[in-house]
Write a structure and sequence with these properties.
By secondary structure, the protein is an alpha/beta fold. It has a domain of about 210 residues: Rossmann fold (3-Layer(aba) Sandwich), CATH 3.40.50.720. About 30% of the residues lie in helices and about 15% in strands. The protein has a 7-stranded mixed beta sheet with strand order 3-2-1-4-5-6-9, with helices on both faces. It has a two-stranded parallel ribbon with strand order 7-8. Helix 3 packs parallel to helix 5 and helix 5 packs parallel to helix 6.
């Protein structure tokens, strides 16, 4: 699927004990990668990381992303070909209780990874993960696009916006002529097997049913898009593969749709304005490529198909090393 891009390559993965991190570690192992994980102990019991037996199948390092020396030494020792930075403090409600810890993890932790990457003197593709919540919340019906202002009402969202600003600043300041290529990726709410965390809609429903309790819906008026966990992960992998070999010809998915490419110049993208006014219309147009919400079309009750899950753009908003979106 990824043209052997990760086989026998060393991958440094932060946050590998978390839900998405464990799934990504499993996928990378199946792709033949040598995975070096860097994270705190699993935050839940049970945990997908333990259920998959990952501790014995990869280089498992328990460490804190807030420790710059530990991050720098770990990246230096592993000499990675790829870096995926997923380590974060993600629960929104917890960010209200621990705002300083949230900023230390999500903003300074990202800066520590960027500084460690600066010290590498070999080709490496690094994908740093933030969130679709990094945009200033305008309460719009349509989804947000990459050119929309960053912001955030709560400490978690604003910390991820700050992380995006840091990534952009480091990229422009230090990585223009550097062998390491970096990009950020933003994804929305995910569901999938092995998610045991609190304040997640599906796990909370299952726990309530097991206890024969009513299912509590914290915000019944909210409308949010959802995607399976493997959808954004496929986007992260495609983005990393294209960063590592930026001029490789795009592959084709089973349905014939172009896989994501970070090449500049002519491509399968159309620059014309989308007839859906920025919604996920199912065409390979630039506005929908920047759109984070596959579910947006459903709100319009449109019969047009949305993009296939193998195409990452509806699930993952991306930015090229020069700060632009795919053209």
């Amino acid at each position: 699927m990824f043209a052997e891009a990760f086989r026998n390559k060393t991958v440094w993965l932060s946050g590998h004990t978390g839900f998405k991190g464990a799934w990504l570690a499993q996928w990378l192992l199946e792709l033949g990668a040598n995975v070096h994980g860097f994270a705190l102990e699993p935050a839940t019991e049970p945990a997908l990381f333990d259920q998959l037996g990952l501790a014995k199948r990869l280089h498992h390092q328990i460490a804190d992303i807030r420790d710059p020396a530990a991050v720098r030494e770990s990246v230096k020792k592993s000499q990675p070909d790829f870096v995926f930075h997923l380590a974060a403090q993600p629960p929104v409600r917890l960010s209200y209780e621990q705002p300083l810890e949230t900023y230390a993890t999500n903003v300074m932790g990202t800066a520590h990874v960027l500084e460690a990457l600066r010290a590498l003197d070999k080709p490496c593709a690094a994908v740093l993960i933030t969130t679709d919540k990094c945009y200033e919340n305008r309460e719009w019906l349509h989804s947000y696009r990459e050119e929309d202002p960053l912001g955030g009402y709560d400490p978690y969202s604003s910390s991820k916006a700050a992380a995006e600003i840091a990534i952009s600043a480091w990229r422009r300041s230090f990585f223009k002529k550097h062998p390491v290529k970096i990009a950020s990726a933003r994804a929305g709410n995910v569901i999938g097997g092995g998610d045991w965390a609190l304040d997640r809609i599906v796990p909370d429903c299952i726990r309530a049913l097991q206890k024969k309790q009513p299912i509590a819906v914290r915000n019944p008026n909210a409308t949010r898009p959802w995607q399976h966990v493997l959808e954004p992960l496929s986007g992260y992998l495609w983005l990393a593969a294209r960063l590592y070999q930026p001029f490789a010809a795009p592959e084709r998915s089973e349905g014939g749709s172009p896989a994501m490419t970070t090449r500049r110049g002519p491509s399968s993208w159309k620059s014309s304005a989308c007839s859906m006014n920025g919604m996920a219309c199912g065409k390979f147009c630039r506005r929908c490529a920047n759109n984070r919400s596959v579910a947006s079309a459903d709100r319009l009750k449109s019969s047009r198909p949305v993009m296939a899950a193998s195409f990452s753009s509806p699930s993952v908003a991306t930015e090229l090393p020069d700060g632009s979106a795919p053209s």
